[in-house]
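Morning!

As promised:
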Amino acid sequence: MMKKYASLIGLLGLLSIFIGLVVYSIYTKINIAVGVLLGLGLVLLIAFVILRFEAIKTGLSSRSAKFGSNAAMMILLLLGILVVINIFANRFSYRYDATAAKVFSLSEQTRKVLKNLKADVKVIGFFKSGEEKQLSELLTEYSHFSQRLSYEFIDPDKKPVEAKRYGIKTYNTIVVECRDKQEKINTVSEQELTNAIIKVTREGVKKIYFTTGHGEKDYENTQQDGLSKAKAAIDELNYQVEKILLIQPPDSIPSDCALLIIAGPKTDLLPPERSKIEAYLKRGGKLLMMLDPESPSSYGELAAQYGIRVDNNFIVELSPVGQLFGAGPIMPIVTNYEKHTISEGFQGMMTLFSEARSVSRKDDVSGDVTVTEIAKTSSSSWGETTPLRMGAQVGYNPGVDQMGPLSILTVAEKAAEKPTAVNDQYNLGLGEVKTRLAVFGDSDFAMNGYFNFQANGNLFMNVLNWLAEEEDLVSIRPRDPENRRLSLTAQQSKLMLWVGVILLPLACFGTGVYVYTKRRK
Amino acid sequence: MRNFAAILHRELKSYFTSPVAYVVIGLFIALSGLFFYLIVSNFVQLCLRYDMQAQYYRMAPPNLNVNLMAIRPILHNMSLFALFFLPLVTMRLYSEEKRTGTIELLMTSPVTNTQAILGKFTAAALLYLVMLAGTALFVLFLFLYGKPEVGSVLTGYLGLFLLGLSYLSFGLFFSTLTDNQIIAAVSSFVFILFFWAIGWVSGFVSPNLGELLTNFSLIEHFDDFAKGVLDTKHIVFYLSFIFMGLFLSYVSIESSRWRGR
């Protein structure tokens, strides 16, 4: 009796399972309806098998069922083998860039970075759908060199929660993530991307040492003349700050020193200290000096070795801009910046100094040193050489005093003479090691009293970053496709149209008609 | 080998003595040629415009590369055209034999199924080669009037060839399933289109599943060829795809022995 309805029961079972799966695919979670539908379907199917047991048994043992299942097995087996082969082929593929300019090949530096990845790096591109092609192409190449790199694209309009989680404010932002570190970039270029990867994967913390023992400004001092605000800003960028007394052993500046800062010293360097710093600079060290007027001469001599002259003066500024802020003539305000990594985005920003001396490029700088005067006072300023004493007459003396604009910040860069393996710790063995030196003619601008004034803090941090960080990041020349243009005259263009689009196909059809009619006859 | 050659010869003869081959080849070349002409004309105008702009702003003109900006999109277009045309090439391979009953002759002849399948497949592949060779004339034009890169043109054509063979192998399979040529052509077209577009859904599913689906997508593997990069993984993928199609055809033919149909 029941057997009569066996097929119907089986059919209902299948239908129930199918509807269950559809419901599941809509809600993407197992709820009661899904559970009931799937359960019911299963029960009906089992009932079907029991009712039709004999028939199924004979059917399965038939010749064709045997062959059929055999064939199905073979197909599945082959599919499995092919999938495995393809997984291996994906892993160990060989790639050859046939373009003449190797447009789709990554630079040696990037490959090295990718091959040395020790932690998983995730790149998330926040792009409007359809605008991610360029980055996607670049990342395809990247992911080829490391299994540790993964990437995805998120449309911030479609997934605003994700975008908010990463603090995305503009389209085309790329987030590079590794463990708990993050780096955001806004341009699609190999250089930016590789550098971001280097930054997020860099282990350990860079150390910045402040010298002590010569009356320097102290970062533990929270008073107006302390540097505690500067220190807080440095901490934010994950640098570690420590003090160093140079006269103490060891004989050389620690190898983990990413940057040495001498902030407003009052007494001269001792000869062993000085030679320590010189040795440090030679092997690619980075030094920041903030030298107030009338500070001892040994620091200036150090700077002179790298083409920077620390002038013995103090700057008098008569420009009316400073007076707006109640700054007197001995508080120069800087609004002019030379084009440099440090001053990027600084146009129209003000920095205020107090009792500063000028620091300039020496006239006889040897060729391998690049010296740049970054921040300049106005043209209504001059470098007063008469010492400021009671009753002394302040005024511009032609021939003696130097007329503005004068530089307050000057930086120098030179390839290290004997780069050591020590610097490689941060360098990943890429690029050459460079000695970098930045000299301010003032130390007051960075102290608590002035640090948050206008762009003072920004300037300080920019200099710090330039000194301590950028040098281990790679610079990669973008690869443009080769210039292969095409110019066609109107005749050539028409020839192409006629021959290619009309005559050739017509010839083809003609042959066809010829062959066909000939065969018909 | 002799059997294989005999099948190949027979199939080629039936292609070229009927108008089908000429129409397919002619239309394919005409369509590719039209797009070729349009894209190249566009590129030429772009070159001119950039040159004028550069002169106006007194800047160095940007690098414009005919391979990347013209040939690459053309190759992509051709891969799509092949998708429309190749099912027409394979649709009759077995369907016709089934319809006219010559399949019985083939099955009882000393030709093995493998030989027959490979022979038919090679004949279709050769026809496709002729189609591609016809379009190579356009590229020749470019070499006459400009200096395209040879390397990426060659990789592009290699990619087109492999992609086309993938279409053909499954077209062959679908023609073993039915004695109706139209059904064979349409079903293989839909099937290939499905594997063509499967990567597009990657944006709507989870990243892992998306990557998996992209890996199965026929066209995703083609892009590297088109831009001038040769990658062994893509070659392996296409060869796997082709092999799978041929194997399914084989199973399908074999099965007709015991399915009793």
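The mean pLDDT of chain A is 83.

Hope this helps with the figure draft.
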